Automatic annotation (TrEMBL):
Annotated protein name in UniProt: Murein L,D-transpeptidase
Protein's UniProt keywords contain Cell membrane: no
Domain Peptidoglycan binding-like: 220-290
Domain L,D-TPase catalytic: 319-451
Gene3D superfamilies reported for this sequence: PGBD-like superfamily/PGBD
UniProt domain L,D-transpeptidase scaffold: residue ranges: 54-192
GO molecular function, one term: carboxypeptidase activity
Leader peptide range in chain numbering: 1-30
Length: 490
C-alpha cells in the first residue's frame, strides 16, 4: 500500500507523450443536431452566452441538448457527488442535497422553461467543478507552497467522452474519466477506505510511552497493547479469536504478553510501510508512528490524494515517482511492475524542490560543476583555508566562458563568476550515472549518496530499470560505465 505519511512528492516522467484531444466527429455532430426533447434549448443557449467557456464547450459538444431533465438523472448525479468522499473530497462542498431539492421545483409539472434551463446549467456547472477538482485538485498548490513547480498544464477534460457517458445515464462513468488512472492514486483510495473502516470499528488503542524500546523477547502489558494495536490494522493472526478452538486445530494460541517472532515480523512490516528502519525494535520513531490516531492517518491520506491530483495527469505508460519526505524512488513500468530504490535528498535548510518534469537523457561518467550554493557555503571556505584543496578534490577552475584558469590567478576572497568543475572519476559526487530532466532548480538524480540533490542508491541499475528507449540493458551499461570520459544518452 502507498505510504500514508504526509508526503511532499514529485513525479518525473519517463517520456512525454503529446496526445491529440478528441475533436467533434461526424457522429457527434449528427447527434448534436438531433431535436432535444425537453423544449428548453433556446433558454439554455441564451444562458450559456453568459456562462464559462468550460460550460459552453460541454453544451457545444451536445448541440445544447439538456442532461438533467428527469429525476433519475439528477438522482444519479447526487449519488455520484456524494461518492466523491471515497476520493478524499468533501461532498457537501458540491451541495448535492440542495441540488436535489432544487430539482423538485425545476422538474415539477408546469415549471417554466427558464426555471428548468437555470437548473440544467446549475447541475452541469456543479458536475464540471467536481470533475475538475478530481482531475487536477481543488487547492492551488502554489497558494500553499510557492516552490511547487507545476509548469506542465493538465489536459482538458474529455467533454465528448463525458457527454457520451451522461447520454448513457452513467454519471459514475463520467466521474471515472476525471479520476487519475494511476496505481499510486488507486492505492491511496484503497488506503482511505481501509482506515475509515478501522475508524468505524473504533480505531486502535494507543500504546504507553515506554522509556525503553520494546525488543524481541520482551514481555509485559506493553507487548499486549502492541499486539492489539497491530492486529487492528490487519494483523489478525497476532491475537487469538477464541483460544478454546486452538487445541482442536492443533495450533497454539499466541501468548499476548510475549514479543514473539510473529509480532517481530508484524512490527517490521509496519516499519517498512512507514519508511522506518525495519529492525523490529519499537523505539521512539516507531512508537510515535504507532500512536498516531486513525483520524490523523485519514487526514494524511486525504492530503496525499490532493497532492496526487496536482501531479498525476497526462502521464505516459512509464513514469518515475520520487517521494522526497519518504526517501523513496519508484519507477512504474507499463506491465504494472514497479522498481524501487532508496534515495538521499536535501536537508530542511537546503530543501529539494517539488516539481514535475520530463526525463530527457542520461549522463554516464558525468563531470560535476559545483552549484552556486554549494560553492558559496561549502567549497570557498575550504579553498580559503587550504589552497591545495582544489587539487586534492580534482577541481578545475573555469572562467564564466568556460576557459580553464590557474587557481593561483584567482582572488578567492572575491572570485567573481569563476566556476569549479570536477572531472569524471570514482570520487565524483555524482557517481557514474546522472538522470537529467529540465527544471529551474538544477536538481537531478544520480547514483552516489551526497548532500543536496536526489540520489538513487541503486543508480547504476537505473538504465536497466528504465529500459531507456528500448535499447538499454544492465550488461551494456556495465560495459560503458568504466570509461573515464562523460557520455550522454538521449
Amino acid at each position: 500500500m502507498f505510504a500514508t505519511e504526509v508526503r511532499y512528492t514529485r513525479f518525473h516522467r519517463g517520456a512525454w507523450i503529446l496526445g491529440a484531444w478528441l475533436a467533434l466527429s461526424g457522429p457527434a455532430m449528427a447527434q448534436s443536431e438531433a431535436t432535444e426533447p425537453s423544449g428548453i434549448g433556446p433558454e439554455v443557449s441564451e444562458l450559456l452566452s453568459e456562462s464559462s467557456s468550460r460550460l459552453r464547450n460541454l453544451y457545444a459538444v451536445r448541440g445544447d441538448r439538456p442532461i438533467w431533465q428527469d429525476a433519475d438523472s439528477v438522482d444519479a448525479l447526487v449519488e455520484a457527488l456524494k461518492g466523491l468522499d471515497a476520493d478524499g473530497l468533501v461532498p457537501s462542498d458540491y451541495r448535492p442535497d440542495d441540488l436535489q431539492a432544487a430539482s423538485r421545483a425545476a422538474l415539477m409539472e408546469g415549471a417554466d422553461a427558464g426555471t428548468r434551463a437555470r437548473f440544467e446549467l446549475r447541475a452541469s456547472r456543479t458536475l464540471l467543478t467536481a470533475l475538475t477538482h478530481l482531475q487536477r485538485g481543488k487547492v492551488d498548490p502554489q497558494r500553499i507552497n510557492d516552490e511547487w513547480d507545476l509548469s506542465i498544464e493538465p489536459p482538458s477534460l474529455d467533454l465528448a467522452a463525458i457527454s457520451r457517458a451522461l447520454d448513457d445515464g452513467d454519471v459514475s462513468a463520467a466521474i471515472d474519466l476525471a479520476r487519475p488512472p494511476y496505481e499510486p492514486y488507486e492505492q491511496l483510495r484503497e488506503g482511505l477506505a481501509h482506515y475509515r473502516e478501522i475508524k468505524r470499528q473504533g480505531g486502535w488503542p494507543a500504546l504507553m510511552n515506554v522509556e525503553d524500546p520494546l525488543r524481541p523477547g520482551d514481555t509485559g502489558t506493553e507487548v499486549t497493547a502492541l499486539r492489539e494495536r497491530l492486529a487492528a490494522i490487519g494483523n489478525d493472526q497476532l491475537v487469538a479469536a477464541d483460544e478454546g478452538y486452538y487445541p482442536t486445530i492443533e495450533l497454539q494460541a499466541p501468548e499476548p504478553r510475549v514479543y514473539d517472532e510473529a509480532l517481530v515480523e508484524a512490527v517490521r512490516r509496519f516499519q517498512r510501510h512507514h519508511l522506518l528502519a525495519d529492525d523490529g525494535v519499537v523505539g521512539p520513531r516507531t512508537l510515535k508512528a504507532l500512536n498516531m490516531s486513525v483520524e490523523r492517518r485519514i487526514d494524511q491520506i486525504r492530503a496525499n490524494m490532493e497532492r496526487a491530483r496536482w501531479l498525476l495527469h497526462g502521464l505516459p505508460e512509464s513514469f518515475v515517482l520520487v517521494d522526497i519526505a519518504g526517501y523513496d524512488l519508484r519507477y512504474f513500468r507499463p506491465n504494472g511492475d514497479t522498481w524501487r530504490a532508496r534515495i538521499v535528498v536535501g536537508q530542511p535548510y537546503r530543501r529539494t524542490p517539488s516539481l514535475r518534469s520530463e526525463i530527457t537523457h542520461l549522463t554516464i561518467n558525468p563531470t560535476w560543476t559545483v552549484p552556486p550554493t554549494i560553492m558559496r557555503e561549502d567549497v570557498l571556505p575550504k579553498v580559503r583555508r587550504d589552497p591545495g584543496y582544489l587539487a586534492t578534490k580534482n577541481l578545475s577552475v573555469l572562467s564564466p566562458s568556460g576557459k580553464q584558469l590557474d587557481p593561483a590567478s584567482v582572488d578567492w576572497s572575491n572570485p567573481g563568476g569563476v566556476m569549479l568543475r570536477q572531472q569524471a572519476g570514482p570520487n565524483n559526487p555524482l557517481g557514474q550515472l546522472v538522470v537529467r530532466f529540465p527544471n529551474d532548480h538544477l536538481v537531478y538524480l544520480h547514483d552516489t549518496p551526497s548532500r543536496g540533490c536526489s540520489v538513487a542508491h541503486s543508480g547504476r541499475s537505473v538504465p536497466a530499470a528504465f529500459a531507456w528507449r528500448g535499447c538499454w540493458s544492465w550488461l551494456s551499461c556495465c560495459s560503458t560505465i568504466p570509461a573515464p570520459r562523460p557520455m550522454s544518452v538521449a
